[in-house]
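# nightly structure sweep
# worker-07 picked up a monomer target from the shared queue
# config: single-sequence mode, recycle default, output format = structure tokens
# input follows
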Amino acid sequence: MLRKSALFALLAIAAAALGLWIVYGSYGYGVLLRRGGSYWATMAPTDPRLSVAMREALRQPTPQAIPGAVRWRAIEQGFETGELPVLASGHEIDRILLARIDPAHYRFSVRNDPGIGKNIDEWEAALPQARLIVNASYYGLTGRPDTPIVSSGVAGGPTDYDARAGAFVAADGTASIADLHNRNWQSAFAGARDAMVSYPLLIGEDGASHVPVRTRWLANRSFIGQARDGRIVIGTTRDAFFSLDRLADFLIASPLGLKLALNLDGGPIACQSVRAPGYTRKFYAHWEAQVNGDQVKLLRWPFASATWAMPMVLTVEPR
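# output follows
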């Protein structure tokens, strides 16, 4: 009887392992072994497990976010860093970590490596010349791109995809955001060395927010924008004060001078690294919460010290 029980247990474990591989591939194993998976914990909007910024954002009415002043620092020719304070209720409630880059001097690359899921530290080790590494667009259960991309001239992601938001497109010496409201992603990708579709478009060609709905979903956020002078601005929030619609409104009102802005994936994946001679900045994201009325579901994982896998990243390197 004991032997049969042990055999059945082994068969059950083998079946579960096979099922995990079929659905998630090696990426799923990496997620499970590195942080024990993830789950949603239900709580009230005032729960201390939420960050101060999230609890402030969940007040009714939500306090209006006001942009502070940005001080840019040139760390190399064509590459600047800065931080934009987010002010609410008379004090700083969040902060956006910024980089402003001249495409004439830097190459932008869209990269996908599902594997066992590199975190920001492992991407740094793999790409020692990268000046900036940030999470990119969305990915599926196996860590592969969920939207069309081009990486070093090679197309990836779904080929049959109805994109209505925006795309980031880079070629030799150029980089820009494409508003896909009146064009398709295939034409936007023409001639691109690296490109990716993402959503929503935070600021469209009309200068207005293109976020389709107002929600209370809070998360660490990353975005990529095109300034009116042609430079590319990349930002990551330190905390999770913003829903996407409020982030769009904030960026429109900000002093960043953005002509267009495109949201990237958000939540604990929204990590950022900047490295240059004499300068480093590394940020590990943590927050994501679904909000429905007075019920909040906070994303958690068992291994608290684990950092999130980043199968999709955007990198910036000197030309």
